[in-house]
Design goal:
The chain has 3 helices and 2 strands, in the order E-H-E-H-H. The N terminus is likely disordered. The N and C termini lie far apart (36 Å). The chain has a domain of 55 residues. Strand 1, helix 1 and strand 2 form a beta-alpha-beta unit. A two-stranded parallel ribbon has the order 1-2. With 95 residues, it is α+β, with helices and mostly antiparallel strands.
């Protein structure tokens, strides 16, 4: 999938802007509502493609506020992520 100008790619790693000194994001689960009119779900799919080990999940029937539109499905996906082992074999403190 081609990336629009200025979009992240696998060769330009995504970094966390919310935490000074944070390194690149290496494990991510991106979840988007198909009905999001503010941020199309396809952009989340593109972002996931640019982050190593990232997975993307779209939720049909949810819009921009996935946590309100599909809270059970979102909770199921988050719990599933927290139960997964770290792909790099590092110890986690998720439990």
């Amino acid at each position: 999938m081609a990336s629009p100008a200025g979009s992240p790619t696998a060769s330009s790693p995504i970094r966390s802007s919310g935490c000074p000194g944070a390194g690149p994001i290496t494990v991510a689960r991106l979840i988007a509502g198909v009905g999001d009119l503010h941020y199309p779900w396809t952009r989340g799919q593109e972002l996931a493609a640019a982050i190593p080990n990232a997975r993307f999940q779209r939720i049909d029937g949810a819009g921009h506020l996935v946590q309100e539109d599909a809270h059970y499905e979102l909770s199921r996906l988050i719990i599933g992520f927290l139960e997964e082992p770290d792909p790099a074999g590092r110890p986690t403190n998720r439990s």
